[in-house]
Amino acid sequence: MGKGKTRERRQARTREAIIQAAEAIIQTQGPDALSMREVAELTDYSASNLYEYFASKDDLLAAVANEALMRLATQVGQSATGLSPRERLLAYGQSYLEFARTHADLYLLTFGRKLAHSVLADPEKTPSTYSLLLQLVREGIEAGDFVPRPDFGLQEMAFGCWSLVHGIAMLHLTMQDVPWETGTAGDRQTLECFIDGLIQR
Description:
Layout (H helix, E strand, L loop, with lengths): L1 H28 L6 H8 L3 H4 L6 H23 L5 H18 L1 H8 L17 H14 L11 H21 L9 H16 L2
């Protein structure tokens, strides 16, 4: 039993090291530069050893994307505590955009590239960013701050907010004439306008 647990921990550490090496390559050179051979060189594992953990490059890319999703969920979750419903939702949006800005290649890998396998954060480890968003909006409705309307309730409010922050992030990352440097104040104002629309009676 003890040997089995030790082997599992060693395998988990090896898997994590492989993912971290792949992430480092993606963040410095982009996802197209990733190769199993380069990951093997960076980790001092043989290429054949890598295939014991990931069947293909697409499998490894999906694992990196899963890690990015969990990290994003953790970051936005930590930012949205101890505030009013309006401020929590604003903090969520700003934290989401900050993650996209500081992890551009990981964000584009996760949301802008069709992977061969599904990308889904493990709900047992951390909630998804969207489930957290639903929770924040639900709490705002229950507190009486956000006002549902006919055909625009919890689901529509949350989806509208997510569409907004995701759209802003993708525009900054893919359009040269929409740089992050000149958009921070405008991004905040855009988020505030949307959130204030949820409050208006």
